[in-house]
Write a structure and sequence with these properties.
- The chain has 139 residues and is of the alpha+beta class.
- Helices cover 24% and strands 42% of the residues.
- The longest helix is centred in the N-terminal third of the chain and has 27 residues.
- The chain starts with a helix and ends in a 9-residue tail after the last strand.
- The structure holds 2-acetamido-2-deoxy-beta-D-glucopyranose (2 copies).
- One 2-acetamido-2-deoxy-beta-D-glucopyranose binds next to loops.
Length: 139
């Protein structure tokens, strides 16, 4: 019985260390790498805002992409010269993405819309947004 209790304590301590190590890791990776790329003809413009920051826009020429670090919830819409428009969506949601794509979150403009995939180009996309022909401008 004595020995059994001892083992339990060791197990508890081990879990405690694993948990605090995990918390340190997530504190260190407070920023996540985002990449947006365009695989469509014509310019694609990514228009975004955060809760408190100024809105920003990035324009992607055909078959170009860019990576940058992101740290707070960001909402974007996308306009493609050739394909149409995608209404505001959660481009980076810490609640969703700290689990879904802790290392890098990838977005690509493709023929049928914008697709999101976690971490690797080999990982199948798990988020799909279709081009609309018109802007609803609800924002
Ligand atoms: C596409 O974007 C580039 C860079 O922002 C710009 O120089 C170019 O004029 C744009 N092309 C069109 C057709 O809007
Ligand atoms: C697209 O997003 C930008 C930045 O958040 C916003 O200013 C703009 O109103 C949005 N456009 C539409 C049509 O929703």
């Amino acid at each position: 019985m004595e020995l059994f209790m001892g083992n339990k304590h060791i197990l508890f301590l081990a879990l405690f260390f694993i948990a605090s190590w995990g918390m340190q890791l997530s504190a260190v990776s407070a920023t996540t790498k985002i990449r947006f790329g365009s695989n469509v003809l014509g310019n694609v413009s990514l228009n975004c805002h955060t809760k408190n920051g100024d809105p920003w826009t990035k324009v992607f020429k055909p078959f170009n992409g860019e990576s940058w670090e992101i740290s707070e919830a960001t909402f974007c819409n996308v306009t493609s010269d050739e394909k149409g428009f995608i209404d505001t969506f959660a481009f980076y949601d810490p609640k969703r993405d700290s689990v879904r794509c802790p290392l890098s979150c990838l977005w690509d403009a493709v023929d049928f819309g914008v697709i999101g995939r976690p971490d690797e180009y080999l990982t199948p996309p798990d988020l799909f947004l279709d081009w609309k022909k018109t802007k609803s401008c609800r924002q």
